[in-house]
Amino acid sequence: MELIRAHEIMLNAPEHKQLPCAPEYAFGAAYVADHFCPVFEASIPFYDAGFFHADAVYDVVSVSRGMFFRLEEHQTRFAKACDTIRVKNPFTREREADILHELVARAGLRDAYVWWTVTRGMPPMGRNEMVHPEKFENRFYGMAIPFVFMFDDDQRASGVDLIVCREHIRIPSRAVDPRAKNFHWLDMQMALFEAGDRGGEWAVLTNVDGYLAEATGANIFAMIDGVVVTPDTGCLEGITRQSVFDLCKELGIPTDARPIHADELKNADEVFMTTTAGSIMPARSVDGTPLGDHGGAGETAIALHNRYWEKRWAGWHGTPVRYELAGE
Ligand SMILES: Cc1ncc(COP(=O)(O)O)c(C=O)c1O
Question: What's the CATH number of domain 6-148, 2.40.30.260, 1.10.10.60, 3.90.580.10, 3.30.470.10?
């Protein structure tokens, strides 16, 4: 089965063409604390603890063919993340949605990567006040830019070379809860550098006991004995991960969320990763060992990838962008 070249389609098909917009917004739009601006003009104060302590939660929702995908679920996950780290979103859920719509509308994007955050913000200056979460001035920022693919069409079609990180583990959940999507990325970034050093293209991290947690910026899946498996804990509850569960159900493929030891990965028939910025991304090797006997991307991963995009473009879990907000 051929992989749908989703990026090529986004770049060329008329349904994906960027709508007319003010030239300064052509590369994207941002929202900084209390106003909209072109993305290249957005800046944050040094004092924001989101910047100097990586103290923030965020979320990323995508838009394709003019529709947000599973927007409500992204907003629900984000609200829980705010509660987990004890920041208060300055905006209501409705206002947050309005801002996300307006960001996409201002840039006229039909395919967008829409990112937003609430940071710990400005710290209190008084004596010993940092022990009180409500003394910080939490801040909201957001942006919409053209859709970003973690791997291009050729990489997704051939599958990527994955390594299991040996030098670092995923930060333990009791240190930083991975279910609250947050700014802590150093373990995942160091794992990517290890991948580069070892001739790989991407990395997956384990927990301290050698069980898979998640890949850098993505959930990890394997096809083992006819079952699509993914870790049950120690990872973000990805919205694309949920979509894979839904698609497998439709296709009659059994799934299981369970502990997976890293040693199981090399012997899997297929391995793939999932993230908003890339959808379903097949791997072709793990630690230099080719997967299965397909010599590239696995058939199940390609089938899931294609169905994901076909269904999305037909409106699956879609919320039409309110482009009229661009003019307000
Ligand atoms: C650490 C991590 N795990 C998993 C994911 C995938 O989540 P989703 O499918 O909701 O984008 C992401 C997305 O950025 C991530 O950063």
Answer: 3.30.470.10
